[in-house]
């Protein structure tokens, strides 16, 4: 065991697990504890955490409102890269972890903490994401992960721990699944969802309406982009968080953004995740629409070939790694001309692009028309085809021999 730290910053929610961890850290290390909570738009009641943390032995509780930072500096760069993990997952949990980690490390420095602690388990991705991010920012920080050290193995063990020590925690019946929310999405894992054949019950969904409950008439939404970033919805300019929040509400009303996937965790196992990402799904579709008329073909082809690599880096926790920063520079350079508008149609869980326009559009109807034109000579295609076929003809001639 490393030397006992003098002051520990604990990622804290006020729930059963982190309340137990707070007391366990006091008993194990005898250190001062500063509880920390980041508001990333999870929508939970964060008031009263200071009193709750102090009641279990913390010096104080720091609550950081990073909603705008989270969307502007993490979600939007990821959306500029069109990142999707394994073809379906929009990385809602993954992208929140570096944002929270940055806020944690800033708080740890401000409070003079020489260690941090978190409640991520030893089987998931979050332990990797938190710790890679923390060590990238402070290579000397001590990290304590109780679930990898202590003898507690279950929720009932946590409840007994509290009972033995008169810890003031109200233990409610455990949800039949694990849920995590932020401004970009809600995730559901574990419990009743561990059977990949079983359909997720309708009652688990917190944001999006089921198809039968959505409006019968479609909704049209226009999203304006500047250099790859969404800046306005239906003509109203909004801050990053407010824009995403607006689209979450609209998308949820029309049943948009539900995804059910079996994904490959970084630690090696497969897991089933059910996600709600209404606003992010709309933004992904709208962004592609504006790109389609503003981005050069070969730039798009090369950029798209790098999306799986970028998405894997985000998923695995390498947000603060030089390779992600290098790819981000490329992704952002490709967005220089991605300025324009996309019109989106939402109806019964479906999302459809029905219009796109841009001042610097590369779409030229004079060239694309099926009518007679004077700018494209169709006979030129003969040489184009024969030159592109040359290597294929040479291979065929070789095989004839």
Please give a handful of descriptors for the protein shown.
single chain; 401 residues; alpha/beta; Rossmann fold; Argininosuccinate synthetase, chain A, domain 2; 2 domains; 5-stranded parallel β-sheet; 5-stranded antiparallel β-sheet; 14 strands; 41% helix; 19% strand
Model description:
By secondary structure, this protein is an alpha/beta fold. The chain folds into two domains: 7-67 and 90-165, Rossmann fold, CATH 3.40.50.620; 178-357, Argininosuccinate synthetase, chain A, domain 2, CATH 3.90.1260. It has twelve helices and 14 strands. The strands form three sheets. The protein has a five-stranded parallel beta sheet with strand order 3-2-1-4-5, with helices on both faces. Strands 10-9-8-13-14 form a five-stranded antiparallel beta sheet, with helices on one face. A hairpin with a 4-residue loop joins β6 (178-181) and β7 (186-189). α7 (240-253) crosses α8 (278-294). The model has no long low-confidence stretch (mean pLDDT 94).
Coarse shape: elongated
Q: Enter the CATH topology name of the largest domain.
A: Argininosuccinate synthetase, chain A, domain 2
Mean pLDDT reading? 94
Q: Quickly count the domains.
A: 2
> Approximately how much beta-strand content do the residues carry?
15-25%
Structural class: alpha/beta
CATH architecture of the largest domain: Alpha-Beta Complex
Count of DSSP-assigned helices: 12
Helix content: 40-55%
User: Could you give the distance between the termini?
Assistant: 71 Å
CATH class of the largest domain: Alpha Beta
- CATH superfamily annotation of the largest domain: Argininosuccinate synthetase, chain A, domain 2
Largest beta sheet: what is the strand line-up?
A: 3-2-1-4-5
C-alpha Rg (nearest Å): 25 Å
Contiguous low-pLDDT stretches (5 residues minimum) are none
What about the largest sheet? 5 strands, parallel
Order of helices and strands: EHEHEHHEHEHEEEEEHEEHHHEEHH
